[in-house]
Amino acid sequence: MQGLQSFLKNQLCLIVVTLCMFGAPVHSSEAVLITENTEELNLAVLSDYYEDTEGTLSLNELDSPEFQSRFKPVPNDVFNMGITRSVVWLRFDLRYRSSLGDELGTWLIQIGYPSLDLITLYVQDPDEGFIIVHSGDKYPYGIRSISHPTFLFPVDIRSGETARFYIRVETSGSMQIPLKLWSPLAYLERSSLEGVLTGAVLGILLVLLIYNCVQFIAIRESCYLFYVAYVSSFLLYLLSINGIGMALVWRDYPIINSAAPFFMSMMGVTGVIFSRYYLRLGESIQWLDWMYILMIMLGFLVMPISLLVQYGIAARLVMFQVLLSLPVLIITGGWFWVMQKNRAAQWFAIAFMLLLMGIGVHIMVLLGLIANTSVTSNAVIIGQALQATLLSLGLASRTRMLRMEKIKEEQLARRKIESTKHQLQESNRLKGAFLQAISKELSSPATQVAESLDDLVDGGSLESHKALLEAARHSSREINTVVSHLLTLTEFQSATVTVAQTPFHLRKQLEITVDRYRAKALVKRLPLVIDIDESVPYVLYGDSEKLMQALSYLIDNAIKFTDQGQVTVRAFAEPNEQGESLLSLQVSDTGKGIPPDRQEAVFEAFHQVEEDHSGDALGLGLAVCQHLVNILGGEVGYHPESSSGACFQIDVICQQSLS
């Protein structure tokens, strides 16, 4: 019977505690009943608070009847006032009733936000008044009652008694006070889960940090260095806000916790620098690259300021810096991913989206939209760990892509070197053939001149003297033509040539130019025909001297390589809206044409060295013609005739009037 009564009593206590936890908030007029079965209790919703804007009130003043009515219920599951200079006092009452006959019960009061500067817990004691316990991240780590990254206070309550608690909190950062009551065993289970989660995140970040350090040392790629700087700054920021740095690294230097805004600003700067090099903005989009440079300069300005101003101002400045850069990074990565099909940018965009999702979950927890669990409360840390992992994978993908590009560039460079080597070999071969050909071309007429002069000296009839002089004159002209071609080609390749803009009559210029070659064509009994289309204006403006000189090389070339048929010179024009005319001069013949395998090199100097033709064996005429047309800003091309022969066409822009 006693066992049944004890069981019913325990169940009744559980119902009362449950109603206290999930029903309407119970405030200072009603103490919260706890038993041995109470494992976790959210004290924030059971507490009242008072905002001391001046920060001068003492416990004796607040515990007086005058101030008791000024306390207000905490409106949310987690007390959160944002960044404020006010001092906040929390008040709650706990009544312990043991169903097992224990005289003393032990619990843990936890404030789960490690970035609070000064915390003072006042525990009412019937014999000693109030017991005072100090903590906070402004104190050395050794003063804490329990060694833990958050703030834990062990409290003992006698069965059947009610204890009043006051908590005074003063901080320069965000005033968040997640306040809970734990049984030691329940907290051990919960902290084990959180420890595994935090250890996993820190382990992942450390492994990524070491791996990418090794990669940087191995391949000397600056992007790895900036990644290491980014992850390192995040680790420092994480250690400064979650209490682990205070617990493990700088136990006796609590001032380092005040550098959290500096670490966050450094994380923002290194993140933008890493993104700039990762996406290679300097090689693609200049204006976007300058935007990133401006964000980097802003970050370098905020970093030292965050160490000099108050924590609240520094936090706001850094938040502005980060919120300004984060959307730009995500949009940039998405654009490179979607528009340029950049695989490395895919990892980048997804990584920063995960970080943004983690920040969004954290904000929803603060607003009370979703439950505050081990996962949701660490959403930013989890998002950052996933981001760092994906960025490391993206960095490896980017390195592979750059390596493939480098291999392709090396292969292309090798092909260019081989091509250049082949061209040099071909050039040397042609130069050797050129020297041989020019010796032949100059020696033959020079010998003819010498022999004619010798015969003149030996005497003879007047008719024989005329024939000898005519032969000497013809040979000297051949020598002069070869030398003239060489001098003209050298002049075009080494000097600056000006282009005149003077009026000229195309019909008249064509007749003069063609008439110079009629005698040569008559020797081979070749008709030399001129065909001028009606579209050609009567007067044009341009450099007629160079134009006719280029045309003369084509006419001379056509006569040389045509044995029967005719040579035709055509002219036609096409006006445009700018008051100009596209003038086309075409020279066609009925010779045997040019073999297909030699058509591409027909305008190269010395190309005709291997041709078995008399005349311009050096192949300089077409090369000089092309240089002249290029100087005039036009083009010259070869068009094989459908039946036989060759056709060369000059296209050049001429003005119809001078404006």
Distance from N terminus to C terminus (CA atoms, Å) equals 122 Å
CATH class of the largest domain: Mainly Alpha
Count of folded domains? 4
Strand element count: 20
Q: Write down the overall geometry.
A: rod-shaped
How does the helix and strand content classify structurally? alpha+beta
Average pLDDT confidence is: 80
**CATH architectural arrangement of the largest domain:** Up-down Bundle
Stretches where pLDDT is under 50 for at least 5 consecutive residues are: 1-29, 609-618
| Estimated helix fraction | 40-55%
DSSP strand (E) fraction? 15-25%
Characterize the largest beta sheet: strand count, sense, and whether it forms a barrel.
7 strands, mixed
C-alpha Rg, in Å? Answer: 48 Å
CATH topological fold name of the largest domain: Rhopdopsin 7-helix transmembrane proteins
Helix count, DSSP H or I runs of 4 or more residues: 17
Give an account of the 3D structure.
- With 659 residues, this protein is of the alpha+beta class.
- The chain folds into 4 domains: 2-182, Immunoglobulin-like (Sandwich), CATH 2.60.40.2380; 191-399, Rhopdopsin 7-helix transmembrane proteins (Up-down Bundle); 413-491, Helix Hairpins (Orthogonal Bundle), CATH 1.10.287; 496-655, Heat Shock Protein 90, CATH 3.30.565.
- It has 17 helices and 20 strands.
- Helix 4 runs antiparallel to helix 5 (222-241), helix 8 (286-308) packs antiparallel against helix 9 (311-338) and helix 14 (506-515) runs parallel beside helix 16 (544-560).
- The longest helix is centred in the middle third of the chain and has 80 residues, at 379-458.
